[in-house]
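Hi support team,

I'm opening this ticket because the web form for multi-chain structure prediction keeps timing out on my end. I have pasted the exact lines I submitted so you can reproduce it. The total is 979 residues across two entries, so I didn't expect it to be a heavy job. Is there a limit I'm missing, or should I split the entries? Thanks in advance, R.K.
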Amino acid sequence: MKKLLSACALSLVASVTMAADTIKVGVLHSLSGTMAISETTLKDTVLMMVEDQNKKGGLLGKKLEAVVVDPASNWPLFAEKARELLVKEKVDVIFGSWTSVSRKSVLPVIEELNGLMFYPVQYEGEESSKNIFYTGAAPNQQAIPAVDYLMNDLEVKRWVLAGTDYVYPRTTNKILEAYLKSKGVAEKDIMINYTPFGHSDWQGIVSSVKKFGSEGKKTAVVSTINGDANVPFYKELGNQGISAEDIPVVAFSVGEEELSGFDTKPLLGHLAAWNYFQSAEADVNDEFIAKWKAFIKDDKRVTNDPMEATYIGFKAWAKAVEKAGSTEVDKVRPAMYGIEVANLTGGTAKVLSNHHFTKPVLIGEIQEDGQFEIVWSTEKEVAGDAWTDHLTESAKIVANWQDPKINCGNYNTETKKCSGQNY
Amino acid sequence: MLLRFTYHSVLRLLFVFAACYPFNSMAQDVLVPVLSEGNGSIEDTVPTIASVSERLAGAKLKEVAAIVNELETVGGTQVLPLFQALIDGDLFYTKGDKRIVIAKRIDSSKQYLLKDAISGDELGTVEKKKIRKVKTNNRLRSGIRTTIARLHLFSDDVSLRQGAISNMSEKLTQDNVNLLLQAKQTEKNKSVRASIEVALAMYQLDAGERSEKLAAIGLLKGNLDPTVRNKLATVVESESDKSIAQAAAAALKTIEGKITFYGYLETLFFGLSLGSVLLLVAAGLAITFGVMGVINMAHGEMIMLGAYTTYVIQLLMPNHIALSIFIAIPAAFIVSALFGILIERGVIQFLKGRPLETLLATFGISLILQQFVRSIFSPLNRQVATPEFMSGALEINSVFSITYNRLYILVFALLVFFILQLILKKTSLGLNVRAVSQNRDMAKAMGIRTEWVDALTFGLGSGIAGLAGVALSQITNVGPNLGQAYIIDSFMVVVFGGVGNLWGTLVGGFSLGVLNKFLEPATGAVLAKIIVLVGIILFIQKRPRGLFPQKGRAAE
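Hello R.K., no limit was hit. The queue was backed up. Here is the completed structure from your submission:
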């Protein structure tokens, strides 16, 4: 009996030390449901990064262990699964979420339990949480430079802002509209259009875009159209004889992964704005692509911007853990600020005190093979801005988690107070 | 070779004109290659095509534009293939000796077939690694298109000349106008001549005398080309001479009136086209739900199966895209019909008279079928290519064009509908179907094998859903969720049109489509859908049996 007990105790101790011996990395991406198409890739990216880090000997002498859960494209389930990861699995960090609504769902949980999450997708901004690092683009790192490019390089005078009807396009278009007006674009030269998710009958809208664009001024479409609806949209553009030279479309949600399901003929020459393209010429990128293809065992798989954002986030976190000498959130978080990691386009990404990163902005033209030809890029990296300068109510708000005088994500520079709003 | 010869003879002819028109600098530039061909010594001092094009290798985007301009001056029509390749993205340079080549990918291999961009000599095949693309972007391409247009202005092909003129009329520089003036002298084709005159008239509006301006406005009156309209609009705004401004305003008004008219026509066509899609997806349901009374939630998945059948057929015959569509039509019908019969025999027949259970069971089947294609074809959307004859648009005039894919689908939908009517009205199967749906017991007593009829009817309805899938594969995404997007619409149409009445489905589909499209410009796509849905709910409150209710005892 005594023997048995001691054996039990031994095994208990062993399991405890086992648990302490690994650093747990939570992966909170949908593996089923509508978002599975996009998010599964990011889960695989994290797994690849974990494997890679373990090959290098792990972190702080411990191995990394990925804990994968499936929130199934169900927004409230994201909150539940985040709680499960933090409370039950006791993960040290979470990589996850794609849609803004899923992030907003996770946010209160992760703040309550003082977790740490890396969010890898371009988004509408207007947020800075103590417990989230935003590794994708804020509007000033994607939408605004893209509009600048159209305005200065293509001399676009009339604007169609077309989007799917939900929070990201609506906020982005609000910012863009304010920005265009501040640049002297008249009300009548801006057309805004929203369509439901998965919209497939684009005849009327494309025809009105065509009419809008035939009034003698160079016209462009800024598209925040999401997912599936893009295929029939571009098809209709092609059928109605609108080429990228007449009315270019610059998209914020169309990347390599999305194009791999497209017939690229009608898309030729249309544009996309991202912080990374697979076609970027850099040695680190070639290495990353080769590693990815080997990991996923499919030579045809492509890489895309959110994958790069995941990569940057992971590298920055790993560096911060080593700097802090611990995986504790309260130690890692301050260590994050100012950390620099190489991005995949040959530059560096710096972690800012508003929990955003510096990123280069690239404009690419869609090629026949579904890749992008980079036609323009910012000279150096752009610092991510949590609160846009182009909306009057947001312009006076700053986020700074490093400066002890501010130390919040929504400091009002006029009233000198943190609004304390719940995002 | 013949083509080049004629180009050159035209250019030589132009030389004579050039002597008469001292302002014609353009034509003289184009003449350079003709002269240099005959005189070798000039090549040393004047840049040659080869020496200029060489610089394209590794050129930055900003430099390419200048090189292209120089090439046009130096090379004339000889560099047309090079320009065309540049626009098509086929222009590369070899990494080793920096030779400018036109490279074509051999099928989908990594090998490229090379041709010298200037001489056209075959240079064999190389791997992608050995060559690099000459970079272009939209702005360059549009510039090159104008350059090509200038070079095409004297081509033998009427459509090339027509295209050249419409391109040049957007950029009426002095050079272009001079070229157009020359072209007018030699042009024999009437419609090409007319478009040259329109382009010149637009130029007159800027540069002409008062009488010339008025004549130009007279000529442009009623022309629907957007460049003409914009030109007139600027004249109305900026012209100081009142009578000219007034004439322009009047001409503009005529044009606007015409445009509004065609705008309505266009919206009507869009509505009919949306209606035809609704008709297609609802026709099958009109049989299974309308005639048989089975609430089939898996109807959308029958559509999806049809679309996937089209995809598979296209995979089997990748080189005959057009043919594959025609083969897919019967194939999709058979596949969906078989699945339909399987569902009817396997599940629905045991749930007869229990609509709630049927609804739940078929909903379950729809989920199973979705997962079924997800596991076989992956959750990603599949790409179905559009055959050549279905892409592009039938241009009636410059403000009204009908896209071919929509036009064919409209025709296809009507065809399917009338064949369905024929089957129900003229065949013995149709007679049996109607008999069973009107009075099952009586039909049974008359010796009709009702079970057999049920299975076939369900198969027919599902098969027609499969046909809808073939059509939808041409306009939307082929993915596991394809059916879900249309199930609500199809029930809406059947209920609105009147359950059990095929004509009701036809009228219902088209009227909902047209209503939707006329609302859309005013309210936006989201609100238009909501208004239509609310409208139907109110309508059903007033007339619960839809537009064309079944009459008589059968309706009870």
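A quick check on our side: Residues 153-240 of chain B form one domain. Let us know if the file doesn't open in your viewer.
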